[in-house]
Write a structure and sequence with these properties.
Blueprint: E1 3-6, H1 11-29, E2 34-39, H2 50-64, E3 70-73, H3 85-94, E4 97-107, E5 114-118, E6 122-124, E7 133-135, E8 138-146, H4 151-159, H5 163-181
């Protein structure tokens, strides 16, 4: 069952609890060497920069605290999106780590601002009607806007989302992840 959290309530605490329980359950079931975060998106579209923002913030945290057993792919400097993720996937597949995919999502209006944590794979390319790829052990998705069901309109919608809104979602997810990996 997917759990969703609204940014107005204690989003960070609920996100931390759900992410932590899913991560530790997977750790018990599978023999992973570490964690890999794949932060999907681009810095060229405001609504789609959620993943790279989290990747950048997470990378800064790991450097600051000298944590080296966690890999992060996808930052504002080196974004990973639908077109180029195949190259990085080859590197990631060689690692025996729990793959956590972080991405922006579109959904119903009432879900905007919610963050979903799931043990299901992330489907890349779904909203823009491209070939779909399924990837990941855990997916973290922030609903940044309404799914208008037409790729062209979804693309326009993603371009017109408030950067402040995206930054708040990215901060909540990054802070939650950092809290969990302190004890991993």
């Amino acid at each position: 069952m997917d759990l969703a959290y609204n940014i107005e309530e204690t989003l960070e605490e609920k996100f931390i609890n759900d992410f932590c329980s899913r991560l530790y359950k997977l750790k018990k079931e599978k023999n992973y060497n570490g964690l890999t975060f794949l932060c999907i998106g681009t810095d060229k579209i405001t609504g789609d920069c959620f993943g790279p923002l989290v990747g950048t913030k997470l990378t800064q945290y790991l450097k600051e605290y000298n944590i080296f057993n966690i890999n992060v792919y996808g930052t504002l400097e080196r974004p990973i999106n639908y077109e180029n993720f195949g190259k990085e996937l080859l590197k990631i597949e060689k690692e025996n780590s729990c793959l956590i995919v972080i991405d922006a999502a579109l959904s119903k209006k009432e879900n905007i601002g919610k963050i979903y944590v799931s043990n299901e794979k992330t489907v890349l390319g779904k909203v823009l009607n491209k070939n779909k790829f399924e990837i990941g052990d855990i997916s973290i998705k922030a609903v940044v806007g309404k799914d208008l069901k037409i790729a062209k309109y979804n693309f326009i919608s993603l371009q017109n989302i408030s950067l402040n809104f995206i930054m708040n979602l990215a901060d909540a997810v990054t802070n939650g992840i950092c809290e969990v990996i302190k004890y991993y």
